[in-house]
Amino acid sequence: MDEIVNELQAVPWPVVAPIIIIQLLLMVIALIDCLRRGGETKGPQWVWILVIVFGGIFGPIIYFLFGRRND
To answer: How far apart are CA 40 and CA 31, in angstroms?
Structure first.
């Protein structure tokens, strides 16, 4: 248990925390956008949801660049 606490204290939180917050915000915004569009995405909606959720910080970016249909 002490090893885990020591490892967590060694993490540079001022650098890591903003990245985590940006990733979560992008994920939430992309999920909301994908769900509101319904079937109006390039490809199946469920695939884009998987890309957004499991793609890390790049998943939502890939969705915004390639997944949205701009008709």
So the answer is: 13
Structure tokens at 30: 């992309």
User: What pTM did the predictor assign?
Assistant: 0.81
Distance of CA 69 to the CA centre of its chain: 19
Nearest C-alpha neighbor of 57 from the set 29, 30, 27: 27
Taking the C-alpha atoms of residue 61 and residue 67, their distance in angstroms, rounded to an integer, is: 9
pLDDT tens sequence across 39-65: 788 889 999 999 999 999 999 999 999
Q: What is the separation of C-alpha 45 from the centre of its chain, rounded to a whole number of angstroms?
A: 15
Neighbours of 29 (CB within 10 A): 14
Q: Determine which of 17-21, 32-36, 41-45 has the lowest per-residue pLDDT on average.
A: 41-45
Q: Which is nearest to 59 in space by CA: 21, 16, 24, 9?
A: 24
